Structures are given as C-alpha cells and as structure tokens.
Amino acid sequence: DDAGCRAEPSRKSAEGRGRTMRGAAASHRRRGPAAAVWIPILACVLHICPVSVVRAFDAGIAVDTTGAIDDEDVAVDMAVPDSVAAKPDTYAYTFAAMPTDGDHHIAWFEPKAVAPKVHHMLLFGCEGAVSPGLHTRSGGMFSPGGGEPRGSVCENSRSEPFIFGWGKNAPPLTLPDRVGFEVGGDRGFKHLVLEVHYLDPQRSDANETSGLTVHLRRGRPNRAMSVVAFAQGFVLPPGKARVSVRNGCTYTMARPLTAFAFRVHAHALGVEVYAERLTGGRWPKDEDEDEAREGQGRTTTPGDNSGESFPAVRLMGRDPQLAQLFERIDDAGLTIHPGDKIRVTCVYDTRNRTEATRAGWGHGDEMCNLYLMVHAEEPAYLSCTGSQTHGDVRMAIQHSPDSESASAKAPDESESLTAHLVDAPSADKRWPKSLGQVAGIVAEPDGRHAWAFHRGKRLWDGDSFDPSTHKMKDLESPIAENTIARIELASGKIVKSFGANEHYMPHAITLGPDGDVWVTDCGLHQVIRYNASDGARVAEYGRKLTPGKGKDGFCKPTQVTVAEDNSFWVSDGYCNDRVARFDSRGEYVGEFKPGEGDSTTGFEVPHAIELDSRDSTLYVADRERSRITAHSLDGSMIREYDLSPHGLVYGLSVLRSEELGLSGLYALTWRRDAGGDVGVVWIPTDAGRPSRGNSKRHQRVAWSLSPAVTTPHAISAFGGVAGGTDGWGRGVNALVSETRPAPGDVNLHRIWIGVDANRHGDEGSKDGAEGLKVVPPRGWVEGARSYVDEAALPGSEKATAPTMVATKGKRDASSTETLGKTLDAARDDDDDDDDDDDD
Asked: Is the pTM of this model over 0.90?
C-alpha cells in the first residue's frame, strides 16, 4: 500500500478512467483549436517476463518545443497493461524519461484508472536513472506470508521523492499557474516512475491499461512544488473502538513551505488521519485520549493550558475511506515555518479484528500516511518517519538543492565569519527616509520582507515619561505618521503601512504564526495585535495609557512572543521586571521572575523575549543584567548566558533554521557606559538535541558593529539560504534597528555575517559587501507596483548610511553557562526610575 512501515516516501492512490492502449504515448499539444502535434512515447513495463524497455522521451527523439508558449503542454501518458496483475496485491511499474532540451514543470495530473481494480497509484521522481531491478512483484514487504520487497525506485539512491498519489477514484489535480514540480533540464528530475497497485488478479487476456497522464509545461516554475511525506510503523491491538498512531517531526530548513494540498491514506480500519502543529513544540498530554473518549480516562480540552498541557493546533484532516485525493487547502494560508513541529495522527477502529494488525503493504495490513504538497522558492521533498514520542526528530531530506547546506555542521573555526554592512538597494543606499526611531524590526520567515515599528517624528528622551507614574507626559498626541511599515528587502521600499494616530511610544514588533503583526507600545502600556493584510486591530491587551501589573495590565511592556496557538508571553520590562503569560484566548495565566524577589537574580529590564519551539524554550534578554535567561514554558529557569563582557543585552533573535550550521541565539549588545561598542553575539544551541560531545557547542562568537551602529535597539536574524542571499556564501542575515536621537538619522541596517563574504571585497575595505545583492524571486513584481508615498522627515536629506569595516568574529572563550548569580560587570548603577530615560 501507500508507504509501508519502511517509512519510505509516501505512496498514494489514484482515480480516473482506464482506457485501451496498445502502447504508451506522450503528446505535445497546444491548447485551444490549434491542431495537436503528437510525439510517440513508449512506456516501459518492468516485470519478470522479458519486455522491451522504452522511455517516454527516447534518446533519438527530441521534444519539439520551438515556438512554445507558457500555455503549451506536453502530455506524458504513463500506463501499464492490466494483464500483468496475475496475483493478488500486484505492484507494476512504468517510467518516463523527462525532456533534456530545457527546464519543464508538471502543471497537472490526469488519472486514468478505476477503483477498486486499482487500489492506488504513486508517482516518484529520480534525479538520475531508474533502478534496473525494479519489476512487477506480488505482495508487500510486511504482508502475511511475506512478499517480494520492491527495492529502490531510483538507481544508486535510497531517496525516493514522492510527487503524486491517487486512490478511490480521486479526480484530476491542477496546480496553480507557474507553480509546479520541476522536471527535465539541468535541475529537475530526469525520470518519473509510476507504481500501480492492483488488489486482485486481472484476466490474462485483458487489453486495458491503467495509469496516469502527467502534463508538463515548458520553463521553470516561479514556485517549486514538493511533497512532505509522513509514514509510521506500528502494531494495532484488536477489539478497540479507537486506537491512535502518532508521528511527529521538526522542520528546520530555511525556506518556509506554503501548503497547497494534502492526501491521507489508511486501509479498511482507518477512521481519520489529521495533522497538527505543536504549540511551543510541546507534545500534548493526549496519550490517554483514546480511553478517555470511551469514558475511561481524562481528555485534553482545546484551549486548556492548565498544568503543562499545550493543545496542538489542528491544520488539516480527512476520512481515509473517502476518495484519496489531494484536497486543496491553499485558501487557508497555511505555512510551515523553520522550527515548526508537525504531528500526524491516524485513528483506527479494530473492533472487528481478533488478532493484532501490523503496518504493511497488503490490504489486510494497515497504513498511516499523510502527504502534504507544499511550494517554496526551491524544492524540498521531505519525509517524517519520526517519533511517536516528542517529535524532536528532524524531517529527512529526500531531494532538495539545499540538502548539502541543510545538513552542515557549525563551522569549526566560527570566528572566521565576518560581519558586513549591506547597503540598502536604493539609489542613495539608504532605507526609507520616513522611518523614525526604529524601535522594533522583524523579518518575515522567507526573508523577502521585514516589518518595522517606528516612532515617526517622535523621539524617546529623558523628558518623555513621568518617572513617578511611568506615564507619558504628552497623552494628547498620538504619533501622526503610520508607525508600522512592511519593507520589501529586494527594493528597500515600503509596500504597506498603517498605525497612524494609534501609537504613543512604539517599542517592539513580532509576527504571529498566522502572519498577524503584534506590537508593544510603552506609551500605551499595551500589547496590540493587527491583521497584517488590512491593518485592522484584532485584539489589544492592557489598559490604554494606564500602567498596570499582575492580571490588570502592563507597565511599559517591551516585547511579545507568540506560540503556534496564539498563546503568548510578554516581557513587561521597565517597571514590573517580569514575564506575563496568556493563553490562546488572551486570558491571563500568570507571570514569572527569576529568583522571585531576590534583587540580585531577578530581571532588571527584560527588554526582549523569544520562543524556540524546537526545544520548547523561552529566551529573555535581561538587559541591565547583561544576560540571556532560558526558561521552560511555565517560566522555570533552565540556564542563563552571561554576556557581561559584551555589554547590556538590548535585542534577541532565535535563528530556528539549522541550515549552514548557524542556528541559535543572536544577541544585540551595547557597552553603553564603557566605550559605546555595539556588537552581535552568536550562541549556538542544541535545541533539544545532544551536543554529540562538541565542547565548543555553547561557546559564543561576537562581532563588532561599531561605528556603523551607535544606538542599538532590536535585531532579527534569518537564514542565509533564504531571501535571495543563497549565493552569498555560508552565513546569516540580520536586520538591526536603532533609536538615534536626531530626526533623519539612519535607524535600520542590514548585516551579513558570513564565511565567504570577503570574496566580494577585501577585508578592511569600506566596500566589503559591495557585491552582496539580493536576488529577487522568480516572477517577482516589485512591490506589486504599489508603494506608499514617503513623507520626508526633518533633518539632513544628504545623510547616507555609514560603511562598516568588515569585522572578524572573536570567540569569547571565557564565557560559560551558569545557573546561579552572574557578575554584573557591565551594569550601570542608576536607580530603577532612571530607566525611563533609557530606551
């Protein structure tokens, strides 16, 4: 059946009509009234008896695409004769060689089979040749009495990227325009392999065929389609009304995956197959869920965050007894982000079985499969055969141009990385002039856009707040300008903005799992959630313009971090020195402070907060104590990182992508009272995985950003493979914001920290990053030809971004993890009220 206990890439069923064929053919036809041009295609049926082996695109026949236009198709008919099914559970195969005269992509799938004669069809892609040992076989690897193993689909490769599956008379599937599976040319699959599974023997004189027509279109797609396949081995006990099998993995590549459609597969006992995203990376307490539904135990109620149970967020689900089609979910706006843990659950009813049922390929066995069709700038075929416990296993890469970088380890000599200032892609090499003090900055996961939360013409200075009440002195005048701006990083232009006359003193900005924009405003003493599409307020927390504490509000909150179910934590920083926790309904759950009342170990201006779902850890930038504290989701202290040699910790960003071996914490530090040096510190973290004996795993590396950056405030890091920078070499992107005291000053910078950055310029040169240009995505339309009019700020119109001399990394060998009291070497001795003068 579909994928088997072997956890190979998925296997799917297909539907369609069988038609009589004396041979397989590929057609190259223009849509519309134009006459079709047919190109003979011979398919190869691999079985034990001798047959001729021919390819869909024979070496002596070139596919004529002269004058082809975008709406022109090449139809590849892949079919096997039904007569090959001489025994029950017969698996037959055919393959097609893809065109070699240029890039193509699959635009749609047309099944030509009928159930129940055909149980399922699966389509695989091969980077090279098809396995010569692939042949018609009967039974499955785990069928009763044994069966003949299939072996590999592709020659010299255990990787079997899954493309498409069909079952139970599912209909054709059409992909979005310019989104498809890459085939042919230099980049795409060289061969397609079709597996056809017959449940019962067919007549030896049957003259019908069953198969699939794959419709190709010339050219590379703008977005590359791939499939993430989930499969799990198991044994089901008999006589149970409800038995669940669960399988979870973590996605850690750099490029976000946009979901298009999904397909589930189980056999006769299957009741439901569904996928969830784990909240905070925490495996829910639902191991007793099945018994609870029968009234024998307790169940986990959605939204109930009591104890340490964090309900998972359901993403999709389907009854496997329905047509096993790829059900489209592209209108749901679902994206899989780096660091997401995805769990698949299959539910079975075994009351009609008297013996245990095992996972296997035979129709008397069972299966647990879900296939998620996704697209991104580059393909990423993945599999999860993972874990029935906590989902810490990483998704395995079946095929991707990023596969080498995705498996890279941390550099042995990470101090060889250099930091560069990357000029804005504008004529004056400046980011938008309409940005005032940029209090908050966050990059979108794909690195193509960033959101800034800025103060327009307003400045935070020593006269902004009343130190006795923590209220702003001017409560009558919200900032007139749009304070929230979406910036297109390829052009440096603002493509969306909102928030005018709504904010008083912007501080930080965060993106939720659904793309909503969350901000903290110290003047309002509130956390506000916006719809990113139209700028409408979704929710607000805290009392407007009124400081509070406990469940009654915030006092100058600094940042919010949001979990997958929209529960959230707020670093309530300037007055309350705490982290407040709220559930997915926005209800106050509680708060935590390290040391709980101990003045030497508690927070002193928790200035930033981040959640890393890979290991369910919260990180807090404890600014005035020059440290980062790590906490479990309930606030319990795990460890702390002493950064006092580098100064106060202003900003914090977690790089969840593990590509290039550069994931971990990126801290923005400032020796505010000791020379003013500004830097970025990288702390590699294990994110729930063993360090494998690497003693350097927690040693940090620092880079100076001076003199380019003088008044740091926030940082946002994203993977070097994302955002059009994969050609820059091995490195990390970082956006750094400032709150400079003069109108018109530069308050946003793009930094590249990379191994190979100096190949674009000599070390120490002012032009060290001159060659670092962002490559726009295929099919890019700059800002959709729509930009916000920028109102120039008062100040010098001639100001340009300073150039930073390339700075080599410096390993901080003396710093270590501590669990107790830290040395406050870089902490100033001002009274708490003086923090109001210090942004």
From this structure: no
